[in-house]
Amino acid sequence: MGITHLDAAGAIADITAISTALLQREPDHADSKPVIVVIEDNVDLNAFVCQALSPHYRVKAAFDGRSGLELARAHRPDLIVCDIMMPQLSGDELLHQVRADPTLANTPVLILTARSDDQSRLALLHAGANEYLSKPFQLGELRARVDNLVNLRLAEAHARTSRVAAERERIALELHRSLTQRLFLISLQLSAVLPLARVPAVAERIGESVRELDAVINDVRNTINQLDIPTGDETNFRLRMSDLLGEVTEALDARFQVFFTGPLDTIDRTITSALYDAVQQLVTAILRHAIADEIILQASYETDLVVTVIEKSRTAPSPTAATDLTALLPQQLAARGTRLDMTTPDTGETAWTWTVPMAITRRADD
Asked: Do 266 and 334 belong to one domain?
């Protein structure tokens, strides 16, 4: 049974679903306004604070520490404003409970206190209070301190969400690449046994499976290009090229060698990825249409980046083997004026050389 485009879409959807589950979202609020929990046992002061903040915030009121803590756990607010002297649970105790609760630990807390001595204020800060406001206070000062704390909270939440989203995309990209590599190796192995199939129907079935696998690989590669997420190893030119040749030659029992010269790992990720795709397509074509004994990759970076793939074989390669040079020159390389040459340096050898002008990149770096 071959792999279809529908299977490819399903595989991509499954991978994306797995990675999406890793993104933990901030609690959704029915209203776009930030949520503030006000805990104050003085009814008049509670109403005053709630009224002052309600134009810009969704305010939830509590009149003792215990109910205030339950309210905070239920709504996961962007800020808690609380008194110190309260029934059932004091402000000090509530602060301790908030900092010990994983769902509230990062919630900013503004303490309203009648204590004016420095020692009491310092104790509150050490206990985890973000700000304190001495009673009696000016309405403008209350609003300013609340605005500052909420804005800081929202900025931190946005940064945290962005980091998690970036990590999700990085993991999705790695999963897509892993799937591509596995399918690529399976496709090569099927291509290797294709000449051994003596029954025409079997040969046709294998050929069909290879074509379907290639379509799946292209689908996944297109998804990777759409993600376009920079990862730490994308600029590791040496490692990526070595791994590529090692995997494909091992799959088909061929030898390989790599030779690197110059600061190759400083090459930007766009060029690295484009060359990786081009070399992968070339090696695939070589191993499908010829019996390669050895594949050599040479890469040097001085003024220009020069990458050469040499195929050595005791058997002459098929005329159809990797002769379509335009297919081996991705748009990212062509746009930089890259030149691709195919030569026969020695008997039984065919060489493909990419010459990528790098002067523009170096001047930009300087």
From this structure: yes
**Mind listing the pLDDT tens digit for each residue in 317-341?**
544 444 567 778 888 899 999 999 9
Rounded to 5 degrees, φ, ψ at 56 are: -115, -5
Q: How far apart are CA 151 and CA 81, in angstroms?
A: 15
Angle of helix 43-53 relative to helix 139-193, nearest 10 degrees?
60
Out of 12-26, 166-180, 337-351, which region has the weakest mean confidence (pLDDT)? Answer: 12-26
Contact 322, 328 (CB under 8 A): yes
- 87 Cβ neighbours under 8 A, 6+ residues apart: 41, 64, 65
Exposed, middle or buried, 222 (CB in 10 Å: 0-12/13-18/19+)?
exposed
**Phi/psi at 15 (nearest 5 deg)?**
-65, -45
3-class DSSP state for residue 256?
A: strand
Q: Residue 145 and residue 360: Cα distance in Å, rounded?
A: 50
Task: Identify whether the C-beta of residue 287 lies closer than 8 Å to the C-beta of residue 248.
Answer: yes
pLDDT tens track for 137-186: 888 999 999 999 998 888 887 777 777 776 776 666 666 666 666 666 66
CB 283 within 8 A of CB 244: yes
Residue with tokens 């070339």: 282
Q: Which amino acid is residue 231, in one-letter code? A: T
Contact 163, 26 (CB under 8 A): no
- DSSP, collapsed to helix, strand or coil, labels residue 136 as coil
What digits encode the pLDDT tens for the residues 230-281?
A: 444 445 788 888 877 776 666 656 677 888 888 887 888 888 888 988 888 8
DSSP 85-124: S-SSS-HHHHHHHHHH-TTTTT--EEEEES--SHHHHHHH
Cis omega (within 30 of 0) for bond into 136 = yes
Identify whether the C-beta of residue 107 lies closer than 8 Å to the C-beta of residue 101. Answer: no
Domains identified in the chain, total number: 3
Q: Indicate which CATH number applies to the domain containing 132.
A: 3.40.50.2300
- Whether the model pTM is above 0.85: no
Domain C-terminal end among 174, 201, 229: 229
Domain span including residue 166: 162-229
Classify residue 157: in a domain, yes or no. Answer: no
Measured CA to CA in angstroms, residue 364 lies from 120, 174, 234, 264, 333 at distances of 56, 30, 20, 17, 18
